[in-house]
């Protein structure tokens, strides 16, 4: 839904002259394009954050080991902090009431520094997610060939990192032009590319055949301390249920 509304906002900006030289547009078109792109950027950041969190929750559900869950919580917290800081600086990139007007607005943020922070945080959290996936999946007791296949599937998220780096470089390069409507076309295309790759790579682990291939391994990822506790509990239950009757013990087993 966020991706859809972001695409609609981008289309509205395009219909008002985004991608065309400013000299061919009137003031109303320029302002409409700026407003639509302002909304599209807010939706883009929100979409990126939600897809990151969906993967963090998915990885957290793969393993019952406490250390894995702690890393998931840490990464989820870092993602939320990045999201709120990026969102607030985007919403208030210029002083009210013209917060959307980075051309004529007052007290606007440094766009180069702002986008560097947003993109760098985006890249860092994605790399951390891939590292966490590899860390968790490596502990699964599977054949090496299947384990490598699963890791390769999760590593598809590195394509998002590559696109985000390209996005950062080209956006900073485009800031050298004062033509705000024309210079934006390539960064906007890359925004859509990053968004598409992020949603796609977030959906891949939820494909049924992929989940079925994990089934045999997931049940073997156990916390050694929990395993010892459960074994002691089972031993006490066996003695209680079976008593002096061996048949009762065998039945419970």
Automatic annotation (TrEMBL):
Residues 242-253 have a biased composition (Polar residues). The keyword Methyltransferase does not apply. Pfam families: Fung_rhodopsin (PF20684). Residues 225-253 are annotated as: Disordered. It comes from the Eukaryota. The chain crosses the membrane at residues 38-59, 71-93, 113-136, 148-172, 184-201. Keywords: Membrane, Transmembrane, Transmembrane helix. The keyword Phosphoprotein does not apply. Coiled coil: none annotated. Residues 5-211 form the Rhodopsin domain. This is Rhodopsin domain-containing protein. It comes from Amniculicola lignicola CBS 123094.
């Amino acid at each position: 839904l966020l991706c859809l509304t972001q695409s609609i906002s981008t289309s509205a900006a395009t219909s008002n002259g985004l991608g065309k030289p400013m000299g061919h547009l009137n003031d109303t078109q320029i302002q409409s394009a700026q407003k639509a792109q302002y909304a599209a950027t807010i939706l883009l950041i929100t979409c990126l954050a939600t897809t990151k969190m969906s993967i963090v929750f998915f990885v957290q559900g793969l393993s019952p080991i406490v250390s894995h869950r702690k890393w998931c919580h840490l990464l989820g917290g870092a993602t939320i902090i990045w999201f709120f800081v990026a969102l607030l600086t985007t919403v208030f990139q210029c002083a009210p009431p013209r917060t959307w007007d980075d051309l004529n607005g007052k007290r606007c943020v440094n766009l180069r520094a702002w986008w560097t922070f947003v993109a760098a945080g985006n890249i860092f959290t994605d790399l951390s997610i891939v590292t966490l996936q590899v860390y968790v999946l490596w502990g699964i007791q599977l054949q090496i060939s299947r384990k490598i296949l699963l890791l390769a599937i999760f590593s598809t998220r590195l394509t998002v990192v590559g696109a985000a780096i390209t996005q950062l470089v080209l956006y900073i390069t485009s800031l050298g032009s004062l033509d705000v409507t024309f210079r934006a076309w390539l960064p906007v295309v890359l925004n859509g590319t990053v968004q598409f790759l992020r949603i796609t790579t977030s959906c891949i682990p939820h494909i049924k055949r992929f989940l079925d291939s994990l089934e045999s391994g997931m049940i073997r990822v156990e916390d050694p301390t929990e395993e010892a506790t459960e074994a002691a509990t089972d031993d006490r239950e066996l003695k209680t249920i079976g008593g002096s009757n061996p048949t009762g013990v065998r039945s419970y087993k």
